[in-house]
Every structure is written in structure tokens, then in C-alpha cells.
Amino acid sequence: MNGYSSILPLMAIMLPFLAAFIIALTGNKALGLKRVLAVIFTFIPLLAVILLFKPIIENGHIVSYWLGNWVPEKTWAIGIGLEIDAFGLFCGLIITLTCFLSSIFSIRYMEKDNGLEKYYTMFMLLTASMIGFVFTGDLFNMYVMLEIMTFAAIGLTAFRNHKYKSIEAGFKYIVIGSLGSSLILLGTVLIYAQAHTLNIAQISAILHGNYNAVTIFALALMLTGYAVKAFLVPCHTWPADAHMSAPSSISMLLSGVMSKTGIFGIIRILYMIYRSKCVAAPSMEFLMIFWGTITMLIGASMAIIQTDFKRLLAFSSVSQIGYVIVGFGVGLSAKTSVAVTGTMGGLYHMLNHAMFKSLAFLCAGAVLYRTGTTDTTKLGGLAKKMPYTTVLFMISLASIAGMPPFNGFVSKWLIYQSTFEAGYWPVTIIALLVSVMTLAYFIKLAQSVFFGKIHKEHENIKEIPWSMRVPMIVLAAVCIFAGTFWNVISDKLIEPAAYAIYNIQGYIDVMFNKGYAQNMFNHEIPIPKMTRAMAGYWSPINWLLLFVVLIIGFIVIASLLSKGNKKESIIDLSDTKYDTFTGGEKEYFSHMAGNDLFWGLKHQFRGYFKTLKNAHSGIVNDYVLWVAACAAVVTIYLFAVL
Amino acid sequence: MKSNKKSYKSSPSTNKKSKNIKVNDVIITSCANVVLPIAIILGAYVIMHGHLSPGGGFQGGVLIAGAVAILYVAYGSDGVRKLFNITRLKASESMGALGFIFIASLGLIYGVGGYRFFANTISKGTPGTLFSSGTIFWMNFAVGYKVLTGIGALILIMVSSLNSNKE
Amino acid sequence: MLLNYIGAFLLIVFGLYIILVKKNLIKIVVGMSLLDTGINLLLVSVGFRPGGTAPLFMNDLKPGSFFVDPVPQALTLTSIVIGACVTALALSLVIKVKEHYGTIDADKVRRLNG
Fold it and tell me: What interhelical angle do A387-401 and A425-449 show, nearest 10?
């Protein structure tokens, strides 16, 4: 595209970089100038993304821009190209919106810290590199932007360096994160050795049909590397520490948005570079669905036993990412109508998760700002003092559990339907179970923090100031809007993005000339038809079948478990609230905290929970061993099936 | 060598404790006096000839930033603190980065053959001489300046945190 | 040419082994740096063309000179810079860990677990 629309993505990337260095120049004076610059220069990329809606989504073009005017010579790409299709624009919208809201939140939230020029510099670098990552069309440029993103995130995690938590979390993050980036670099090197170019469009055209052992090994390494960034299961140990210790306006970016960039990388590799090996291949579909299911289960199980507010939310993020990967795994299936539903479910859940998880983290930040602690055993009864925060947290709870007028229902319904129609019905049952567990630990959290009796030291807290409430209200409004007007969002955002994922021919042709992809692929590449009617959001037959299957499964499992174990269960008597009530207790008041709500469940499964808790030992060598084991397993599996 | 060290341990020559390794030895100081100008000139040569020989902005910048480390070894942290001011180093680092972005956006303003970012718009002379290859020559300077001030500030901060630990 | 690839592979394996087995935090940082060096060596050896010379524009440039591939050399430069930055950041964090915990043994720096 020519005209003004090709300069807009460049502005969106370079202006936050410029702002980062101008803020670093001011030193530690002029705090107001820093705040104003941060808010303005995160608003301009949002404006650029909204202005790019018309050419990309309504007219269906793909914007491309060659840096330095190095246009391809004799159809061989020699420069770095930016290429934005509808999927990249969708991710760009999520990123710019959350960065803008985070910059508004940190005006009041960070007022008690000093050294703020370092915070704002790293914050602008994080924004700029995330936008650059989704807008680029060059494989090594993706790696460089990913590294800048990792450095900025580590610097922000370890920002409050008077607390021991931040330093330990920062060190574990840098070891595991840099291992993941090294795996991605190794995969890039191996792909370059085979294709001799770095442009994603040209690589996918050249590698078609020429897959050998080197490229399959590169696929395994890059999948593991991006899995570390997107925290899939054996590599999920770093976000639990990092999201807990970072300031809350950054935790929402790390948890809600940076994981989406990891998923963006996985999709670019599976659906575009390795297109003819992975799409419509049952073995790859099985791998991604299996991976997503394990992630869902372990994330939810670890979240039930946590006592820290933000650590619980981090494990909850791990489990929701499992849902997204299951959705995209179904998208690799051979039945095209089911595949499209799966892809649309995955995309919708990406948007929803960014919205409701950011809202939950901002509520945690509000509680931390006023009370000074995030330990749920010490909090309680804050609903009377902070009514706005309570209402907004309940909206987030309803969204994540999947209740109908909110947005979680729409995306989870798509994922249930697509896994059921693809033939993977155990996955549907597990997804429903995990959804129930999600509701369980969120209710536990709400009961511990917001309801109940208030502690003595939190008697005089007030509600949070208005400039901190505005981002939370905007996010809650988006949650409600995406749940009730799902047809608008599906038409305008989700369908063009899903079309762009499958439209590899258009993606390649924009960089070169028309017909290049057809020559390389030797045939016309079919794009499955997608309409909203296919999604069957309210289709009653599927609902009834699901219900019947669930009832039968529950009866079978209950009858199996009820025979046999008549062992004595030992109750831990050290806490006085479990004593028999005979008068003269040690304390008048024993707060019915959320940890006691599911005491029966936790006691029955205490072996399972104890194993999981001991497995997350906190030693950095163990975590690295898991990542290496995951890389080995994925490599062996891919060499066996491809 | 051993007798040298023993005689200096008991003398109240410098303001350091005897357990530290930072002793103002005459040998180290005079070697540093000879090596330091050579290091700086070599670094400047590598930056300037980045388009003609292996090297460029980053390598030359690291060589010059090594001057801070040599100064620390020779003169102790007092000598280093007298010469370098850390606020000015940090400000210069940002100015180097801003200079790089400014040169890159010259392509947008002047735009030979289409207005593109990072386009090479300054006149390229004959290849192989010093003033050739357009914007790459000036970008080397911007990158070299940023790297030398950045790594210099980094070494300064690490060294000063080392000092406050021991004393 | 095979020697380069074997050397790069050995460096990567040794770097990974150090991160997995050693408990001292500084040794872990050294292992990360070794892993990066191995990948850089692999990257430079990918671009080799037998009979080529260094890809520089010198004074006596003749048309038809045969260069090795210059793109991997630019990529290696970027990767070396990134490796240096990772080492610097990790070492600063190790200094801070020593201040807070008093020890740099990975078995004792584990207050965030479970």
C-alpha cells in the first residue's frame, strides 16, 4: 500500500523509542514532564492502530514497508520489511490499548518510588519492542525485538530492589528467559542455513516441499523457545515469581500481553512458515492439543493452593493460555469448518484474557497500594472500604468463569464446541472441569480479600483515587461490550484475523508480485470459508450432548472412587479453628479465609497437591532442567511423526 | 615481586587498607600512562574506519570504554571519580541514541528515490576511501558514542558498588 | 569445515551442562555466556563459502570478487551485543542477591517456592 497508511506502522514503532531516550535525558527532575510524555507517546501508537483499521480490515489489504528502500531485487528479498496483516493488527490493538491504560494507572501508583526515569524509560522500551515484534516481517528482527522486550521486562521486575522478592524473581527470569531466547536464535540460524533469506514470506515460499531433518529440528527448537515466552507447561515456572514481584502496572503487561507475543510467534511458525507440514496434519494437532490440556490442568491445580494474591493470578494466566493453545491446536485440524471455529475461539480468548486478567491485576495493585500487602491470610473484608474495586473485581471474576453476559462465555463456548466437533471429547470434559476449578479459586480469592471481617490494621483505608479507577472502568466496559455485542467484535476483528492466518498466498504476494506464491507452491492454496453462522454460539444440540456426556462421566468416576479407601484422615490440629468448640478459645475471631473454603477438596487430594508443591522447588537448576527436557521431548516427537 | 609487595603493605602510602589489592604501584601507574592513549586512539580508529575494515561502532566503543577499567586499576576509584561524572555520562548516552534516530529519519525528510526510513541519503563518495557510504559513516559515530558512554557508566557503577561493599 | 560445527556443538552442550549442574550463581552466568558463544560460532560458520575473502569494500575492489556471505556476520554482531548485555544484567542481579541473601548458592536462594 502507498500513501499515508504505510508510514503509520513506522510511526507506531519509532515514536516510543524516541520517547524512551528523551525521558532518559531528563534525569531525575521534571516528573510531570515524564508522565505527560509517557501518556502521549503510548496514545499515538493506539491512534495509529485505529487509523490502520480502514485499509487493512475494511478493504482487506496487507500493508508492507521496506526499510531503507531496499526493495527486492529479481524477487529475492534483501531488506528488512514490515508487514502488517489483520492478525498482526489484532495483536497490535491489544498491545497498544493495554500499554496506554497501564501508563495512566502508573501516574498515581508509582508515586512513592524514586528512580522513576528508569521506570519510564524501560516502560517505553517495552511498549516499542512489543509493537515492533508484531509488525515485522523479518525473522531475525523478531528475535531482536523479543530480546529488547525481555530486557525491559527483567529491569521492570527487579525495579523495587529493596525487596528480596524482586531480585530473586529477576534472576530466575533472566536465566530461563535467556535460555528460551537462545533456543529461538538457534532455530533461526538453522532456518537461515537452509533458506538463505530472512524474510518470513520468502522462507515459507522456499521451504514448501523442501523439508529435511535440519528444518524439522529448527521447528522443534523454535516451538520450545516460544513456549518459554508464552509459558506453556514445563516452562511455566518463571511467571509465578516474576508477576508477583513486579509493580502492578507492569504485571498486567507481563501477564496479559507478553504471553500473547509468545503465542503470536508460535502461530507465525506453525501456520505460515511450516504451512504445508502443520496445517491439516493430525499429529501436530494432537501435539498442540495435548500440550494445551496439560497446561490448563497444572495451572489450575497450582492456583488452588496459593496464598498470595498475585501469584495465584499468575498461575491462573498459565491455565488460560492453555485454553488458547487448545483453540489453535484445533485450528490445525483437517476438517476445515472445525478448524476455523477453533482458530476463532483461540483468537477471541486471546482478546478476552488480556482484558480480564489486566483488570484483575489492577485490582490487586489497588489493594496493594492501599493496604501494603498481598498476602491473603492477612487481608479480609475490604468490600466496605473499597466498593468500586470490589465491583470491578466481581466483573473480572464473572468474565473469567464464563458467565453469559460477559466475554469469557463467548470464547470458552467456541473452544468447547470446536474440541467436541474435532473428536477430542476428553479435552472438552477437562476444559469444563478446569473452568469449574477457575471459578473455585476466584471465589476463594474474593472471599479472602473482599468479604468477611476486616482486620484491625486496615480499618482506615480509603478508596483508590480517580486516575487509577479510570483504566479499570475502561477494561470492565470492554469486557461487558465484548460479551453482549459479540457479533460486532466477531465481524470486525475476529473473522478478518482468522482469514489472515490462513491467507498465506496474500501474505507472500504482497512482498513480491502477484502470482509468486502460486509459482512456488504449484497450486492454488485453498482458504476455508468462514462465517459467523458456523460458530454456532447458541446451538442447542451441542449443549445437550455435552451435558449428557458430562453426567455419564461423573457417574462413572464417582462409582470408581467410592470403593476402597477407608483410611483415617489426619487433621492438622495446630490451627485453633479446627478445635471443638468448648468455650475459652484463644482468639475471638478467626477469619473464615478462602483457604478454608475448599478444605475438603485439598485434604482429599493432598498427595497430588503436595507433589506439585514440592516440584516447584525454587531452585533455578530444576527449572532449567524442565525446559531442556521439554525441548528433548518435542524434538523426539517431531522426528518421529514428521 | 614479593619483596615489593611486602614493603608497600606497611607503608601508609595511599588511602586504602592493606587487605585490598588496590595499591598505587609505580609500575602499574606508568604502564597505564603509556597504554591509555594507545587504547583511546585505537578505539577511535576502529570507529572511524568501520566501513573499510572489521570493526565499527560497537567494537570501537568497547575499546574506549576499557579506558575506564584501566584507570580504575591504575589510580583507584578516587582517580576515576575525579575524571568522570556519572550524570553527564548518562545524559550523553541518551544523546547518542537520539543522534542515531535523527540520522535514520533523514531518509524520511530528504528521501532520494522514495521517502523511506533508514534510507541512505548523504552522498556516497568513491567506495574504499574514508568519506564514502553515506549515512553509515555518521551512524558509526552515534553508535560508538552511545556505547562508550554506556559501558563506561556501567563499569563506573559496578566499581563504585564494589568499593562501598569492602569499606 | 567440519571442525567449526563440532566446536560450536560442544560449546553449546557444555554451556547447557553448566547451567544445569553448577550451583554457584556466577558459574550459571558463565554457562549462559558460553551458550551464547557457541551459537555465535555456529552462526558465523554457516556463512562460509570456500575460496571467498572477507566482505569489505577496500581500495582495490575489482568486479567479480568472491565474498563470503556477509549477512551472518551482521547477525553475529547483534548477537554478541545481546550476549554482553545479558551478562551485564545478570551479574548486577547477582551482586544484589548477595546483598539481600548473604550467599550465592542456588540451593539457598529459594524463598519463592511452592
Answer: 170
Q: Which amino acid, one-letter code, is at A485?
A: F
Among the partner-chain residues C35, C72, C89, the one whose CB lies closest to the CB of A182 is C35
Total residue length of chain B = 167
For residue A147, the distance in angstroms to the closest alpha carbon of chain B comes to 18
Return the domain boundaries, chain A: 161-561+611-641
Q: Which of A333, A449, A340, A456 lies closest to A396 in space, CA to CA?
A: A449
C36, C35, C48: which is closest to C78 by C-alpha? C36
pLDDT in single tens digits along all 167 residues of chain B: 444 444 444 444 444 444 555 556 788 889 888 999 999 999 999 998 888 888 888 999 999 988 878 888 888 777 788 888 888 888 888 998 999 888 888 877 776 555 667 766 666 666 666 776 677 888 888 999 999 999 988 888 887 777 665 54
Q: What is the DSSP string of A358-383?
A: HHHHHHHHHHHHHHS--BTTT---TT
Instruction: Give the angle subtended at the CA of A279 by the CAs of A274 and A284, to the nearest 5°.
Output: 85
Compute the nearest-CA separation of A492 from chain B (Å).
31
CATH code, domain with C80: 1.10.287.3510
Distance, in Å, from the CA atom of A273 to the CA atom of A564, rounded to the nearest integer, reads 53
Contact B147, B62 (CB under 8 A): yes
Residue C56 resides in a domain? no
- Give the separation between CA A354 and CA A442, rounded to whole angstroms: 17
Contact at CB, A619 and C35, closer than 8 angstroms: no
DSSP 3-state of A503: coil
| Predicted confidence (pLDDT) per residue in A447-482, tens digit | 888 877 777 777 777 888 888 888 999 999 988 888
Number of domains in chain C: 1
Q: Which domain holds residue C109?
A: 1-49+72-114
Calpha distance B141→B97 (Å, rounded) = 11
Pairs of CB atoms within 8 A across B/C: 25
Chains linked to A by 3 or more Cβ pairs within 8 Å: B, C
Handedness of CA A141, A144, A148, A149 (dihedral sign): positive
Contacts of A22 in chain B (CB under 8 A): 94, 98
Query: Do A134 and A149 meet the contact criterion of CB atoms below 8 Å apart?
Result: no
Could you please report the per-residue DSSP string of B136-162? HHHHHHHHHHHHHHHHHHHHHHHHHHH
User: What is the Cβ-side half-sphere exposure of residue B82, based on CA atoms within 13 angstroms?
Assistant: 6
pLDDT at A564: 46
Q: Which helix (H) or strand (E) holds A82?
A: strand A81-84
How much is the pTM? Answer: 0.88
β-sheet bridge partners, residue A66: A81
A512 in Cβ contact with A525 (< 8 Å): no
A119 three-class SS: helix
Q: What is the CA radius of gyration of chain B?
A: 21
Domain regions of chain B by residue span: 2-166
Neighbouring subunits of C (3+ Cβ pairs under 8 A): A, B
Euclidean distance between CA atoms A210 and A258, whole angstroms = 33
Task: Kindly calculate the radius of gyration of chain C based on its CA atoms and give it in whole angstroms.
Answer: 20
Looking at the partner chain, which of C58, C88, C95 has a beta carbon nearest the beta carbon of B128?
A: C58
pLDDT tens per residue, range A518-566? 555 555 455 555 555 555 555 555 566 666 777 777 777 666 665 544 4
Instruction: State which amino acid sits at residue A553.
Output: G
Residues of chain A with pLDDT under 70: 1-3, 511-547, 557-597
Is residue C18, in this structure, part of any structural domain at all? yes
CA distance A321 to A349: 9
Residue B44 φ/ψ region, left for φ over 0, alpha for ψ in the -120 to 50 degree band, beta for the rest: alpha
Specify the pairing of strand A81-84 against strand A63-66. antiparallel
Q: Are A116 and A33 in contact (CB under 8 A)?
A: no
> Which chain A residues are Cβ-neighbours of B91 within 8 angstroms?
25, 27
